[in-house]
Amino acid sequence: MALIKTEALSYQYPGGKILNFPALQIGINESWLLTGNSGSGKTTLLHLISGILMPSSGTLQIANTLLNNLRPAEIDVYRAKNIGMVFQKSYFIDALSMHKNLLYFAELSGKKADIEFVNKLLNDLGIANLARKKPTTLSSGELQRFSIARALINKPGIILADEPTSSLDDDNCKRFIELIIGICKSYGVTLVVATHDARLKKEFVNTIQLN
Ligand SMILES: Nc1ncnc2c1ncn2[C@@H]1O[C@H](COP(=O)(O)OP(=O)(O)OP(=O)(O)O)[C@@H](O)[C@H]1O
């Protein structure tokens, strides 16, 4: 069964052209690359899947839930439970250690942080030795590895990453993408990476191409 399924999905920003998306069937624990030229709608599609935007037409189904039918409050609950996000730039609080940052973000969702899970994540990502450091003392490659931990902290079924490697050099890019694909595989998480970064193409079997 598909975890993410769309049919005839489209979105139109006020006054903008209609963005039409190909039908998608993305399975549990699969890794997908979302590519296309600048302006083709990669970020918009990620925002539709995460419920930040509602489709103008078409259907979007995640597991057994038709997102079109949800009310805004239900969408917020859906997003908090199901979606982890990784962005081009990491977002952490400078005054807190990385460990405290992760506990803080875990608790933002209203649940008590699972410290054992946080520690397991840090070990699995090979960043436990950096957990006492503050964000300003870390490199962009190290911060992006913590962004993976942040995205996984509430145990989502789906991770959406928007241009996660565009500020990384070749070594960090390779390390990051292998790490996020590997950890999503081992945690049973479905991964969609939107990018125009040609370095990522060879890492994915499944590709969505937007025009
Ligand atoms: N908030 C907005 N209001 C109006 N138009 C928007 C808005 N955000 C994006 N667009 C337009 O919608 C289209 C798709 O944008 P989107 O950011 O999804 O593309 P993208 O493929 O992610 O591009 P890039 O690779 O440059 O990030 C573009 O034409 C863009 O100008």
From TrEMBL:
Annotated coiled-coil segments of the chain: none
Keyword Nucleotide-binding part of the UniProt annotation: yes
Keywords for this protein: ATP-binding, Nucleotide-binding
Record-level Gene Ontology MF annotations: ATP binding
Residue ranges of every copy of the ABC transporter domain listed in the record: 4-210
InterPro entries in the cross-refs: AAA+_ATPase (IPR003593), ABC_transporter-like_ATP-bd (IPR003439), ABC_transporter-like_CS (IPR017871), ABC_transpr_LolD-like (IPR015854), P-loop_NTPase (IPR027417)
Keyword Signal: no
Organism domain of life: Bacteria
SUPFAM superfamilies, alphabetized: P-loop containing nucleoside triphosphate hydrolases
Protein name: ATP-binding cassette domain-containing protein
Origin species: Marinifilum caeruleilacunae
Upper lineage: Bacteria, Pseudomonadati, Bacteroidota, Bacteroidia, Marinilabiliales
